[in-house]
Predict the structure of Laccase.
Amino acid sequence: MPRLHHYLRNQVFLVFFLFSSIASAATVEHVFQVKDVMVKPLCKEQMIPAVNGNLPGPTINVREGDTLVVHVINNSTYNVTIHWHGVFQLKSVWMDGANMITQCPIQPSYNFTYQFDITGQEGTLLWHAHVVNLRATLHGALLIRPRSGRPYPFPKPYEEVPLIFQQWWDTDVRLLEIRPAPVSDAYLMNGLAGDSYPCSKNRMFNLKVVQGKTYLLRIINAALNTHLFFKIANHNVTVVAVDAVYTTPYLTDVMILTPGQTVDALLTADQPIGKYYMATIPYISAIGIPTPDTNPTRGLIVYEGATSSSPVKPLMPAPNDIPTAHRFSSNITSLVGGPHWTPVPRHIDEKMFITMGLGLDPCPSNTKCIGPLGQRYAGSLNNRTFMIPERISMQEAYFYNITGVYTDDFPNQPPVKFDYTRFEQRTNSDFKMMFPERKTSVKTIRCNSTVEIVLQNTAILTRESHPMHLHGFNFYVLGYGFGNYDPVRDARKLNLFNPQMRNTVGVPPGGWVVLRFIANNPGIWLFHCHMDAHLPYGIMMAFIVQNGPTPETSLPSPPSNLPQCTRDPRIYDSPMTNVDLSY
């Protein structure tokens, strides 16, 4: 009888736990009205596409386990998709929002509803447009808190503050497609340029604090093309999460964020009452390129009771301070045993060595090109330049068995081995290496397989940090280093105990990173440089994760209102038939 009583008590507890988990989940609904609006961050008015008329766009607040529903109504003059950067999209790959990868764009005067569950993630992410350059003005914060009744794995802050860093051009966003991309006119903090720029002296983001209180800064680098250093005068912060993954608390006075990265950091107002600048400056990692003079973009920490005294200024790193950037990036570790933590898988099913960087594309005849050797810039991953499809999305091509859209032949290694970080053109073969093959190629992997990727930065044109973003997954960052990766020496240094987990990683200039992830989500997932200037260059590839053995591990059917690029009845009226779009 005591055993039966114990069993029933446990069953009641289990039912209560499951009920409370279900009851704590909610459906969070938003409407995104995308339209062209006039804004004036600096001295002149500029027409931009914006969500609900704001720059940055609306902040979305959800709890882990919630269902998010966002109705996107496109009243702008642009084709639009919205990507939910860092969201796993488990069983909802059609909602990933990658233009021409998982969907065709939402055309002007059309609409589309994104709906997906947010599970197994807590922290700060972002949403943004995924059509080239529209991310400059179409972006916002996505804040994921623990389920109701579940605490943070750190002391509860007095207040939570989103900080969104942005890049601004006093020009039409369509002109940003110029190769190479034009230099930006300013950087913004929560939509404000601050007192370092003309016509913005009295428009600066102010954070009012109470002495002794602790604030959770939810920091997002939404800049289109630039890594940013961030620092607060006379204050340290404690990093507690990156890319919506909890970390071992890390005390620092400076941080670096690549485009697309996020940091959650605790700031304690522990200094004398006064005013303190917080500032960002660009991190210019390209070796051998002069660093331009750049004003810091500043906001203000204002203590309650502060007078009008001059704010204290932070001492910022030099724009090309590679050691400081590397120190911050490589010292973050995961919170072992924390919410949603999982150990590093030891068995590896797929090993890939991917060289990455810039190459050249032949200049069209009767055209003057300003790149090296009179050619155009091109991106290169294992000597492949990715070509984005134009007629139908890759996900639809995969689901409907349409051929001629992509090839399943992305290589596991570069075509030849060379001195990756000290490249010199000496032979005709070296010259050919500078011109990657233009191709829409993917790598197919089995469901639930473990993939390890060594990303090797090259110096074919210049050594530069590239922020590589993987859709649909987090990856373990097992190690960083400089020079050419040594599979014997460097493999012994990899962190297999508490490596940081991210969805976006900055590959060191002239260096390497080692990543590992479990491919547990069927569909097509993009892997690309998150500098939008490099998207037209083609620094990207895609993974196809095959279906697993059950319906739960198989690719779902597309939603009935998925935007279409073509009205070809052979595709939509007779699904799962072979169609060739290679012509």
User: Anything to note?
Assistant: The CA atoms of residues 277 and 300 lie 5 Å apart. The radius of gyration is 24 Å. The chain has three domains: 22-151, 155-332, 350-553.
